[in-house]
Amino acid sequence: MHSFFIILLAVLSLTTALTTSRRARQCGAQVGLNCSGNIHGPCCSSHGYCGSSSAYCGAGCQSGFGSCDVAETASNVSTDGRCGGPSRLTCLGSTFGSCCSPHGRCGSSTAHCGTGCNSEFGTCRLASLAVVSSSTVTTSSVPAPSAPAPSASMKVSEDTRCGPKFGGQTCQGSEWGPCCSTWSYCGRTRDHCETGCQAGFGIRFPDPSTTLLVSALSSSMESSTSSLSQSTLSGPSTLLSVISSTWTSSDQAS
């Protein structure tokens, strides 16, 4: 009987350790945790943190404590805005946003990252926008983003599609992003908001020399540095209204 309780205690301890390893960010030999099935990503970086980008799965990745296959990780990133469910797609690295909403949609608004956010398939922290102006452009020459108010008759996109070919749906106010790309998809990346953007069905940023960067509020400096290097346009559409006033001062923009 005594042996039975010892074995039971060992099994319970092992179960607890496995659960912790799936939620903890740290990994590797020092802490004895594996990133397999971890919510932050399956790769254990050289610095001992779980993640899913090349910074974690590339050079120095600890193969004994998770996967080191970048292609395998990338294949699990949502490309259509859906997350969780049987496919178990993650929003981390998705162009639609890094938070998985209670309804299984990727995004970056409070509706996605707030109450009910599914941390198993993405982060549940709101991103903050930082505006950085090119050194070759003066603040006086940078035009404000065009943001015509949508007509009362225009339907806000609920399926990522926008423009005249899709019932005249607008991206302004859409959970997918405020810009309607040349391919008639709502989003918030440079591909959506710059060249070819359909300004009549969302917001357009006409000056490609001005870049919006996302400072993802993560628990790891590695993750923040990686996201800043991508130079993409992202963030909640509700914050876009402050960009024009931010551009009026070079000190504020830096």
What does this molecule look like?
The chain contains 8 helices and 8 strands. The chain is an alpha+beta fold. Among the domains are: 76-126, Wheat Germ Agglutinin (Isolectin 2), domain 1; 127-219 and 229-254, no CATH class. The strands form 4 sheets. A two-stranded antiparallel sheet has the order 1-2. A two-stranded antiparallel sheet has the order 3-4. The protein starts with a helix and ends with a helix. The relative contact order is 0.11. Residues 11-20, 128-149 and 207-254 have low confidence and may be disordered. GO terms for molecular function: chitin binding; hydrolase activity; metal ion binding. InterPro entries: Chitin-bd_1, Endochitinase-like_sf. Residues 24-70, 80-126, 159-200 form the Chitin-binding type-1 domain. Residues 1-17 form the signal peptide.
What are the defining features of this structure?
single chain, 254 residues, alpha+beta, Wheat Germ Agglutinin (Isolectin 2), domain 1, two-stranded antiparallel sheet, two-stranded antiparallel ribbon, 8 helices, 9% strand, disordered C terminus
Rg measurement, Å? 21 Å
Computed structural class: alpha+beta
Uncertain runs: 11-20, 128-149, 207-254
Kindly state the number of beta strands. Answer: 8
Q: Residue-averaged pLDDT, rounded? A: 66
Tell me about the largest β-sheet: 2 strands, antiparallel
Task: Going across the biggest sheet, name each strand in turn.
Answer: 1-2
Number of DSSP helical runs: 8
Helix amount: 10-25%
The shape, in one word, is elongated
N-to-C CA distance: 68 Å
Strand content: 5-15%
Element order: H for helix, E for strand: HEEHHEEHEEEHEHHH
